[in-house]
Design a protein that fits this description.
By secondary structure, the protein is an alpha+beta fold. The chain has a domain of about 130 residues. Helix content is about 30%, strand content about 15%. It has a six-stranded mixed sheet with strand order 1-2-3-4-6-5. The protein is globular, with a radius of gyration of 16 Å. It starts with 13 loop residues before the first helix and ends with a helix. Bound molecules: iron/sulfur cluster (2 copies). One iron/sulfur cluster binds next to helix 1.
């Protein structure tokens, strides 16, 4: 999906496989029909693709940590969320269940949290895990409690079950058939 930058996507097509593109009624984890050795409608790709801001393309992580290798696609959450939490918030979508907990994923997350960002991992099949930025754990717990977020805390992380996430972020679990309807509702 990327525009020109210092880094090139090469043969990675990870975002075109895992990201949601409402304009095309493309749900998460379903390869885009226009993804064919790059984007076959690049000049006319929809706004979601034009606005896509891949963290790896922006220069985060090592050269060898391209999303198709780490099986994690990452982007910065909107400024409103960073303003709310008082620091940058990164979202990561697992391409494969568990890619965030293998050493490469773990390293990438630690790099971000140590650098002052919180990380929201959207697991492939099992809900979300929120990794607070260094020094933000207690404050995050206080806020989650206040907002009545249904979490399980383990090892300084906040685990949100799939059932809970389905209720709060149904778009993540949408199919081609109900994506449009869900986006209009939310
Ligand atoms: S995930 Fe990033 S590197 Fe991979 S195709 Fe998308 S923009 Fe390019
Ligand atoms: S339209 Fe192009 S850039 Fe957008 S998801 Fe499909 S292949 Fe990727």
């Amino acid at each position: 999906m990327a525009a020109k930058s210092k880094r090139e996507c090469g043969d990675c097509t990870a975002c075109c496989e895992v990201m949601i593109v409402p304009e095309l009624q493309k749900p998460a984890h379903q390869k885009c029909v226009y993804a064919d050795n790059g984007c076959s409608m690049y000049e006319h790709r929809p706004p979601t693709c034009r606005d896509w801001d891949c963290l790896w393309i922006k220069g985060k992580f090592g050269n060898k940590e391209r999303p198709d290798k780490t099986r994690l696609v990452s982007w910065i959450m909107p400024p409103s969320q960073s303003a709310q939490w008082g620091h940058p918030v990164v979202a990561m979508r697992e391409i494969k269940e568990g890619s965030s907990v293998v050493p490469a994923g773990d390293r990438a997350i630690k790099k971000l949290t140590n650098g002052g960002a919180s990380v929201i991992v959207i697991r492939r099949d099992t809900g979300r895990v929120v990794y607070p930025a260094r020094g933000f754990k207690d404050e995050m717990k206080r806020r989650f409690d206040h907002q009545k977020v249904d979490y399980l805390m383990k090892g300084g992380r906040f685990y949100l079950s799939k059932e809970y996430c389905q209720k709060i972020w149904p778009v993540d679990y949408a199919t081609k058939d109900n994506l449009k309807e869900l986006i209009q509702i939310s």
